Amino acid sequence: MITAEQLYGKLKDIRVGNPLCQFTEQICETLLPTIERIEELKREKNAIILVHNYVAPQILYGVADHTGDSYGLAKKARESTADVILFAAVRFMAETAKILNPGKMVLDPNPDGGCTLADGITAKDVALLRAEFPDHTFVCYINTTAEVKALCDTCVTSSNVYMIMERIDNDKIYFLPDRLMGENVKKYLQAKGVNKEVEVYDGTCYVHEEYQPESVDQVRHNFPGVEILVHPECSPGVVDKADYVGSTSGMLDHVRGSDHESFFLLTECGLTGILESEFPNKQFVGTCTTCRYMKANSLEHILNVLGNPAPRSIIELDPKVQQNALRCVDKMFSYLKD
Ligand code: SF4
Question: What are the chain's domains?
């Protein structure tokens, strides 16, 4: 188990966020009793903790068994042999773990953790769209509820959306719910000469839609030589100005392999914090935005839910929804086999 000194070693270089809330050795000491109790409960219950890259650093570095983006964590959930999977992120990710591994108890320490994308479309909306576009293959971003996945043909994540949309064996596709990601994929397909008619739903992530192309120009001007990394949930105008476009795990890998000294990441702040911890000698410039839903996770919530889960923190799915949503998510994995 991690010591206060080791935890401080991981957290001391994280500068994003409120400067008055930076980690000190004393703060790490105060976190330790909760972390120790969570570790005891993990052993007692044969539980694992999956943590998304956007969640607070004391959770990422204090108690996570696996960290990553939604695709990487979905794979970990599918492969897990633990009795209990606690997913510290937002609701749709915990639901995806239950879809993939329905025999496990899946716990959500953040049951009110919405997502402007997942909350922006319902199963009823999809049913109406399917009636309107009967010849289209329906592709849902993983940021959707289990009920929405259950009505779609395949799921995608930010790490594979371009590749799967290109491979789909139909020239008519309906992509939901992220309008900006859909527009980015349309531009990508056009640039590659792939002729597909892509309809796009009008949802957005409130964190990524905020970024403006002019801010990117400003950062390039102020920090010559900076490498700019952009998430595909950003607008096409922002994506056009990027040096690299990819998922959060893709961005981490890119920085790890890059010779550049300074970076500007247009995604949720959590990722910049991870990189500041990992590369204290590199510079991470510009601003970033926090996702209020991801940041609603806390060590205390995790402790309470592992010790004594309230019914609303235990993910339960209608068996038919689970089976149909599994077909949709499995279809995504099948595209990735070749
Ligand atoms: S960052 Fe955006 S897409 Fe991710 S959970 Fe938050 S609102 Fe949803």
Answer: 4-113+294-313 (3.40.50.10800), 118-205 (3.40.50.10800), 208-284 (3.40.50.10800)
Contact between 45 and 71 (Cβ < 8 Å): no
Q: Which residues line ligand 1 (CB under 6 A)?
A: 90, 115-117, 143, 205-207, 268, 291, 293-294
The answer to whether 206 touches 230, Cβ cutoff 8 Å, is no
Structure tokens at 3: 């010591």
Q: Which of 248, 265, 269, 291 to mutate to test the pocket of ligand 1 (most atoms within 8 A of CB)?
A: 291
Nearest CA, atom 6, ligand 1: 291
Between the alpha carbon of residue 135 and those of residues 174, 201, 328, the distances in Å are: 9, 16, 17
**Ligand 1: residue whose CA is nearest its atom 2:** 205
Residue 289, helix vs strand vs coil? strand
Atom of ligand 1 nearest to the CA of 267: 1
Q: pTM of the entire structure? A: 0.94
Question: What DSSP assignment string belongs to 70-109?
Answer: HHHHHHHHHH---SEEEEES-HHHHHHHHHH-TTSEEE-S
Local structure of 272: helix, strand or coil? helix
Q: Which residues lie across from 289 on neighbouring strands?
A: 268
For the record, the structure tokens of 265 come out as 């990441």
Tens of pLDDT, residue by residue, the chain (338 residues): 889 899 989 888 887 665 555 788 898 999 999 999 999 999 999 999 999 999 999 999 999 999 999 999 999 999 999 999 999 999 999 999 999 999 999 999 999 889 999 999 999 999 999 999 999 999 999 999 999 999 999 999 999 999 999 999 999 999 999 999 999 999 999 999 999 999 999 999 999 999 999 989 999 999 999 999 999 999 999 999 999 999 999 999 999 999 999 999 999 988 888 999 999 999 998 667 899 999 999 999 999 999 999 999 999 999 999 999 999 999 999 998 75
CA distance 143 to 115: 8
Residue of minimum CA distance from atom 7 in ligand 1: 115
